[in-house]
Amino acid sequence: MVSRAVTSLFSFPPSRASRLHLHNKATVMPTLTRLRSNVFAPSIGALLVLLSFAGAAWYTAWKWWPEASQRMPRPGTAEAAHAAALAKTHDHDHADDPDRIEISEQAQKNIGLVLGQVERRDFERQITLPAIVAEQPGRSHIDVTTHFTGIVTKIHVVQGQAVAAGQPLFDLRLTHEELIQSQTDLLKSVQEIEIIDREIARLEKLTREGGLPGKVLLERQYERERRQATFVAQQQALLLHEMTEEQIRQVIKTKQLIGSITLRAMEDEEMTQHDRPVVLQVHELKVTLGQHVMAGDTLAVLSDHSQLLVEGEAFEQDGPALSRALAENWPLTLLLLAGGEAPRATVAEKSVTPDPLKLLYIADSVDPATRTFHFYAALPNRLVRDSSGPDGRRYVQWQFRPGERLRVQVPVERWAGRLVVPAEAVTRDGVETYVFRYRNEAFQRTRVHVEHSDEQHAVLGDDAAIREGHVIAMSSAQQLQLALKGKSGGALDPHSGHTH
Predict the structure, then answer these.
(1) Per-residue pLDDT reduced to its tens digit, 453-474
(2) 328 CB-side CA count, 13 A
(3) pLDDT in tens, 135-185
(4) In terms of CB atoms within 10 Å, which of 23, 61, 274, 382 comes out highest?
(5) Rounded to whole angstroms, how far apart are CA atoms 261 and 242?
(6) Burial class (CB in 10 A: 0-12, 13-18, 19+), 309
(7) Domain final position from 229, 244, 279
């Protein structure tokens, strides 16, 4: 039938003059008719088939293209008629839409705008409490003391310098009578033992020859054991006076008293249990060169800030939430206060500790004046700077410093499968709350319902305005709000989007 239609389409009635020669073309016309049918008929048929498929796809796009369903309503419905009416005034509506704004790429960079897709995830409702970084009592500070009197002849370190365990700190010229006497007694014991050894060697020879009873040799051997016991005790006494084993061997070998001694950084047994180098800082120097010190005086204070504490402050009504977080072993989140009291979120990094920040204990007493109590969490610290100065001395800087103010977010409740966006993605104007959805190279202000918000996040309600997968402005929503008001010509409210 298509062939016949095409044939009829290209067949025209012959003119009066042409009829005279029609009999001459009797053999040509059938050939031309077959040629037109073979060439044009398949092309027209294929075109009709493609148009049929395109029409079916357009008619059913609302079923198989979800995103198209927002722009292409189902044909034959009231929404389709409304969409057709809107299409006629598309350009005019965009120009007059009070909730739509277009900004350049340069402007997006200027305000630090970040785009992102809305995702569903689990959310923890939290309470925010003030806290500070605190030192661990009895561990963070180490006093360097001396067990004897002397004069400071050299100071090897300066305040603020980082030192390793065993590194020299001070040289002292000894004036301590007890230490000098202990060295003298040690030398005397060494010499007496040497004399007794020579005597025993002589008596052993006489005893073997039968010229001396064995009782005399036995008495001298007992005397040597008594001297040896005294010698060992004197060595231990010198070790307690901070003399090293090398120095004691030097006294025994040279038979000379040591007139000066070097005090070194103490090494705590607990420090050596960690798989990290021990780094101490000279927190305070309490002596000067040439100063005479007495036994028991503190020469310096070393600090070890590798392990600190988070000391939080809570009110009585926060007690149940803290107790539940402690019982559930929920992790805490730290908010470091930057300049201007603006919090910035940070979680204990895995490079610092493999475990998240957890509560250690809650204080068992309440301050009667403030009606608050403290809670504590272990805070692993890490070095963020380790360098040498012009004089070759080592200086370090820790990530967290004692006295630094924090805010601690304590989990109170967990919600599953919520639309969570950053707090900067939400802006407020009066009683309405908005986010800016990015569509067709423009930002569309969209009303949303916020179920919960804090300093870092906002939880959106499932009211179909914003759904999972939609692209929105994850930051700078307040700047977009001001730009939108400027576009409409309205007066800008400096407090718009803020709560006081």
Answers:
(1) 887 889 999 887 898 999 999 9
(2) 14
(3) 998 889 999 998 888 999 999 999 999 998 889 999 989 887 888 888 889
(4) 61
(5) 8
(6) buried
(7) 279
Show the 3-state SS of 71-131: HCCCCCCHHHHHHHHHHHCHHHHHHHCCCEECCCHHHHHHCCCCEEECEEEEEEEEEEEEE
Beta-carbon contacts of residue 430 (< 8 Å; ≥ 6 apart): none
Kindly state whether residues 205 and 255 are assigned to the same domain: yes
Q: What residue type is 286 in one-letter code?
A: K
Mention every residue, 6+ apart, whose C-beta is less than 8 A from residue 45: 2
How far apart CA 69 and CA 80 sit, in angstroms, is 11
Last residue of a domain, one of 413, 440, 461: 413
Give the span between the Cα atoms of 490 and 429, in whole angstroms: 13
Instruction: Please give the helix or strand (H or E) that residue 355 lies within, else none.
Output: none
φ, ψ of residue 422 to 5 degrees: the values are -65, 155
Domain region containing 82: 66-95
Crossing angle of helices 214-240 and 177-209, rounded to 10° = 160
280-285 β-sheet, strand order: 141-145, 298-303, 280-285, 162-163
Is the separation of the CB atoms in 428 and 422 below 8 Å? Answer: no
Identity at 383, one-letter amino acid code: L
Identify the bridge partners of residue 329 per DSSP, sorted by sequence position: none
Query: How far apart, in whole angstroms, are the C-alpha atoms of residue 444 and residue 156?
Result: 67
How is residue 15 annotated by DSSP? P
Residue 209 belongs to some domain of the structure: yes
Q: Which tokens go with 34?
A: 């077959």
